[in-house]
Structure formats: structure tokens, C-alpha cells
Amino acid sequence: MSTTENRTQKIAYLTTFFSLYFVQAVPTSFFTTTLQIVMREQALPLSLIGLSYILKLPWVLRVFWAPAIDRYCHTIRNYKRAILGTELVYAALILITSLFDLHKSLPNYLHIIVTLILLALVASATQDIATDALAIRTSQPQQRGMLNSIQSMGGFGGSLLGSGVLLMVLHHFGWKSVNICLSLFVLIALVPLFLNKKLTFQTTSSVQQRATWKDFCSFFTQKGISRQIIFLTLYFNGILGTMSVIKSFMVDLHYSMKEIGFLYGIVGVGAAFIMSYPAGMLVRRYGYQRMRTVFAVVMVLSTLSFVFLSMSHPSTLLLTIAIMGLLGSYGMTTVVVYTSSMQHVRAGREATDFTVQMVITRLIGIIIAVVVGFIANKLGYTSMFALQTALSLAALGYSLYMNSNRSLDRLNPTKKGL
Predict the structure, then answer these.
(1) Residues 44-64, buried b or exposed e (16+ Cβ, 10 A)?
(2) Residue 176: how many CB atoms within 10 A of its CB?
(3) H/E element holding 59?
(4) Which of 174, 131, 177 is nearest to 151 (CA)?
(5) Which of 167, 182, 266, 359 has the fewest beta carbons under 10 Å from its own?
(6) Is the model more confident about 294 or about 214?
(7) Residue 122 contacts by C-beta under 8 Å, 6 or more apart in sequence?
(8) Of 198, 165, 194, whose CA–CA distance to 182 is shortest?
(9) Other C-beta atoms within 10 Å of 390: how many?
(10) Global pTM?
């Protein structure tokens, strides 16, 4: 294969997965953000608005149907059919939601709208399971740094569009028009997948027994897997805890909702999107083990910056730099977490094992968000940010410990790849 053909194939491969991860994030971030805002505009009680967080359930509960993907997807065509089927359901449900006028339908038809969105996100979560498994099986270990860079960029880019740009478009064109366009967008994003005829499995499974729901539990019984679970539990804590209270911190600094949306939702998420790319290149060049320590140092510095900011009333410039640093470091660390998780999957159980690990990080994020809220309320922002910095230091310490004994990792890909 010539250099030009090889480069073209790599671009097609990365474009395929970028479009799939991007299309998951756009409607998801749009629905979760829009529903909460409109409910508040309709003066609905905060207790009712809080129920909107059930929309996040599919991304936690998906672990229970992940084995179905491993059980029934054995060829590239199987994966493509699974992704197509779930995306068709996703698009259809988004289209049905456009039949409701969101402002006029609340609160009388809230249960119907939430149910439709919830079902749509179930379809999206299922597509994500199939996409993750396909990404693992069509890549070599040394290629996954760049692949997971694309995954992170797709997620952050979709969130940027869904929770930022589309909210502004919504005010001009309305709920119906935006949702019709979203449903079409979901289908258009499938085009790169079906035009890519050169997808092939890079890893083969010699496992004869088909996947079952028991594989969810057997993941935790593997020898040495506890070290990876501890890593997933520790690594994100400090940065997720800090991110969960940034908006409240900005409100107390007297920033408006519009300013918070711009600084955090566009500038901050934009920084995460941008930093995911060089992170992937670094992981590809030096290996995820080495870079998880480097990125942990960046996490410590980014969380520490908010300790100092909380001691006074920071300027907008300093706050913006700190937000960019925080979310930029988050974008970098997601690449490491995704790559590490892909290295800890069993042959024939790729969808199940990767999904289990992603659910662990999501659950930890939810728990941390709840806990830090109480801490900030009782002890203040400075103490809370100091605690998050300590948690980031713990993540750095554990990364150094894991690197001191490479046998804690199953694979050590450091060669250049995709």
C-alpha cells in the first residue's frame, strides 16, 4: 500500500469514529441542557427539575445490555447493522419529540417528553457500546492513543454544539425545527461508516463460548483487574469534583448565566476539544502509562489554581485561563482513561468490559458531584478545592506506583501507530 493510500485509509478510519462519537454527544447534551432550562423558565420546582437527571441513567444502566453486543456481533457487518439499527431508532424518537411544543407541553406532557428522550438516549447508549467494541476490534494497541483522541474530540465537540450553539439556534428557529434537523443529522453522520469498506478486525477472538450477562460480573473476578479499577476510581476524582462546582462558583462571583455558558460551555469545552488531539499524539508516541503520570501532574496544577482563585475575587482573564486549564486537562486525561480501558478488555468481551469501565467512571463522577456540593456548602470553596487537589495528588501517586511496576498493566504499547 502506497503512503498516500495509507494516509487516506487512516483519515477515513478516524473520520468514521469521529462522526459516530460526535453524533452521540450532540442530541444528548442538547436534550439534557434544554429540558432543564425550559423547565426552570416555566417556573417548575427544583425538585421536579432534579428528576431530569434520570436522562443520564441509560449511560449507567447500559452495562446490563452490553453483553448482547458481544453475543450477537461477530463480523464488521454485524456491528454496522447494530449501529444502523440503533441510530434509526434514535433518529425516529428525536423526530417524534419535535411534534411537541416544549414550552406549551410542560408540565402536562412532561412524562411523555421525558420518556421519549429517555428511550432515544437508550438507543444512543447502545450505539456507543457497539461503536466502542468496533473501535477496539479494528485497532491495534499502539493505534489507540490517536483513536481515543478522536473519541474525546467527538464527545467534546458534540457537547460544544449541543449545549452551546444549538441553544442559541433554538431561540431563533424553535424546538420543532431543531429536532427535525437533529434527526437528519443523526442519519447523515452514519455515512462515513458505510462508505468505509476497508474496516477489518485487527484483534481476533478464539473464545468459543458466546457472551452472556454473567460476563458483567466475571469482569471483576479477573486476576489483577483490581489495580485498573482503583486507577479508574482515583484518576478523575479531583478534576470531576472541581468541574462539578465551577458553575456555582461562578454564580457566586456574580457571573450571569450567559457569561457562564460562554466561558464554561464554549471556551472551556472548546479547550477540552482542542487538547484531546495533542494528548492522543503524545499517548501514541510515548505510551499511555508514561502520559497518565504527565497528565496527572497537569491535573494537580489545574485544580490547585482554583484554590488560589477562591481566596479572592479573580479577574475574568484569570478565571478564563483557569477554566481552560481545567477542562483542557480533562480532555487530555480522558484519552489516557479510554486507552487504558481498551487495554483491559477480554477477547470476545470487548463491549462488556469497556462499558463496565466507563460506567465506573460515570458513577464515580456522580458520587463526587454530590459529595463536593455538601463539602463546599459546609467548608467553603477554598477547602473544597484544596481537597480536590489532594485527590489529584493521590491520582498522581497511584500513577507513579503503577509505572514503577509495569506488570500492573497488561499491555505496554509504545510503538508509533495510527
Answers:
(1) beeeebeebeebbebbeebbe
(2) 15
(3) helix 57-61
(4) 131
(5) 266
(6) 294
(7) 58, 62
(8) 165
(9) 15
(10) 0.86
**Per-residue DSSP letters for 136-158?**
HHTS-GGGHHHHHHHHHHHHHHH
Contact partners, residue 279, CB within 8 Å, separation at least 6: 149, 152, 291, 295, 331, 332, 333, 335, 336
Q: How far apart are CA 67 and CA 73, in angstroms?
A: 10
The pLDDT tens digits of the residues spanning 353-365 come to 999 999 999 888 8
Closest CA to 319 of 244, 262, 236: 262
How far is C-alpha 317 from the chain's CA centre? 28
pLDDT single digits (tens) 293-312: 999 999 999 999 999 999 98
Q: How confident is the model at residue 49 (pLDDT cuts 50, 70, 90)?
A: low
Which amino acid, one-letter code, is at 243? M
Residue 134 vs residue 407, higher pLDDT: 134
Which three three-digit cell numbers place residue 334?
480522558
Give the mean pLDDT of 103-123: 84
**80: which residues sit within 8 A by CB, 6+ positions away?**
193, 194
- Which backbone phi and psi does 74 adopt, to 5 degrees? -125, -10
What is the C-alpha radius of gyration for the chain, rounded to an integer number of angstroms? 21
Measured between alpha carbons, how far is 325 from 210 in angstroms, rounded to an integer?
45
Q: How many residues does the chain have?
A: 418
